[in-house]
């Protein structure tokens, strides 16, 4: 769907959504499109809502889609608090405030981690989870990893701005099969606030969700790219009672961008039951 048309649809639906309920969240902004059972889309570390544009277009007409962008990412203002934990807390409040009936929460990378965290912390709120190329930890629970993560976090904080942007550009370009095709997303990531990015990196590398995964009541679909790391992340999710796994060939980290047909096939089969 053309971005201008999508923006028009967002404006049409976001205004009434914002007018209802009580205090608006500060840890993220929300774009609301469509009508139907609710779905929440959460991007990855540093990423803008636009990573989900093709998914929003695919779901248009069948679902009410709430797409978030975390504060401090992709050029948005930081709130100076731990981004991942604060989004999780405020997203639970948002679901209650908007009276969303057991939404399906779909997250990519950091967003997948966040979706799992929400589902185990607030199991009664979530109707289903779709995790896209993410696991339950990036190193949390391993004491030997903490100093490594701290060193990288501090490096992000100490980098001159130009070096930080170049580092993110190089890192995220490697996550797409055709990075030139997704230049707008990569450019948006490089506009992230350094402190917010470093803080979120630290959370993802020091929090371990595995001990509490048994609290998740909702069904979970994990969609992985067929990469060297997917078995590692897949093994992390074995504590989930109702888990389905789909592995997508010929894809890098952004599965919904690299292999949209396979991604939508798996997503549609999951949503058809809910």
What this model shows, in words?
The chain is of the alpha/beta class and 274 residues long. It has a single domain, classed as Alpha/Beta hydrolase fold, catalytic domain (Rossmann fold). Helices cover 44% and strands 15% of the residues. It has helices at residues 3-19, 53-59, 83-97, 110-121, 146-158, 161-173, 183-190, 194-206, 230-236, 255-258, 260-271, and strands at residues 28-33, 38-42, 64-70, 104-108, 128-132, 220-225, 243-248. The protein has a seven-stranded mixed β-sheet with strand order 1-3-2-4-5-6-7, sandwiched between helices. 46% of the residues are buried.
What labels describe this entry?
274 residues, disordered N terminus, seven-stranded mixed beta sheet, alpha/beta, Rossmann fold
Break the fold down into its secondary structure elements and pairings.
Layout: H1 3-19, E1 28-33, E2 38-42, H2 53-59, E3 64-70, H3 83-97, E4 104-108, H4 110-121, E5 128-132, H5 146-158, H6 161-173, H7 183-190, H8 194-206, E6 220-225, H9 230-236, E7 243-248, H10 255-258, H11 260-271
Parallel strand pairs: 2-3, 2-4, 4-5, 5-6, 6-7
Antiparallel strand pairs: 1-3
Q: TL;DR?
A:
This protein is α/β, with parallel strands linked by helices and about 270 residues long. It is built from eleven helices and seven strands.
* Cα-atom radius of gyration: 17 Å
Task: Give the name of the CATH superfamily.
Answer: Alpha/Beta hydrolase fold, catalytic domain
Number of domains: 1
Count of runs of 4 or more consecutive helical residues: 11
Instruction: Give a quick account of the main beta sheet: strands, pairing sense, barrel closure.
Output: 7 strands, mixed
Q: Count the strands?
A: 7
